[in-house]
What we know:
This protein is α+β, with helices and mostly antiparallel strands and 305 residues long. The relative contact order is 0.15. The protein is globular, with a radius of gyration of 22 Å. The protein contains seven helices and eleven strands.
Amino acid sequence: MQIFYYPSILLSMQDKGKIEDEIKSLEGLMAGPDFWQDKIKAQGTIKKIQDLKAELLGAEAYDNGHAIVTLFAGAGGDDAEDFAHMLFVMYGKYCERQGWGTKILHENENDHGGIRNLTFEVEGKGSYGRLKRESGVHRLVRVSPFNAKSLRHTSFALVEVIPKFEKTMNVEIPPEDLRVEFSRSSGPGGQNVNKRETAVRVIHIPTNISVHCTSERSQAQNREKAMEILKGKLYALRELEREKKQAGMYISKTTDIEWGSQIRSYVLHPYKMIKDHRTDYEEKNVDNVLERGELDGFIEAERGL
């Protein structure tokens, strides 16, 4: 599938032009005969140019901001949906340990308490920078609680981490590239929310990326939240292209959630170990990771890639 993305989702053309002009001006100073006479000032100018170029590219521009995490159950039926719920608990505990707040934006559960897909917001400075490399396919191996013969079962879930875009950010998506659909919400908000079409689904037509939001009380609030998430998804897609799909760093929903694409394995039978396949970092105390959210070892190893 061909992937399209828009550099303008990060900066308006006017802002982009201002940054390019400032870079040219500073590079002009570098060409001057007296540029290196003041080494400290010269180094500051070079750093400023690098920062402006990074802003132009959008490279890691949102690491210090908040995050939005989506979990998708993959191959494995009820086990995969249960695994997605296990990951939700794990990340919830990790966020709690960091002092970050979380809020569910959309949830699609099965009859067993498992998760088909779920999106939650992480309110915490630097949460995107710490969580972004959790994006990818996660694999669980265990004796299935849903199998009467107690056979070992392998299941998969996809984690997608994107930056949260504030409504004040100057981000442009052409209106003709969007399709907006409305439906009745079955999420939080009380009985009144179910009587009106407050749930919003926004589709980005060129990429076919869609976002569903049901957490707010009004249609307008859900639409605003859905647009924030969509901008984050487009940013992540742009980063995926820019990084040339480096192993598991930024993975879109088009990735197959099955064998051969996992970034981390959680093995609970016949032995217990969690291993990240990108860094080879391992943890044998699986309960500390899955039930108490002790992910620091994995995250620090990933950040060192």
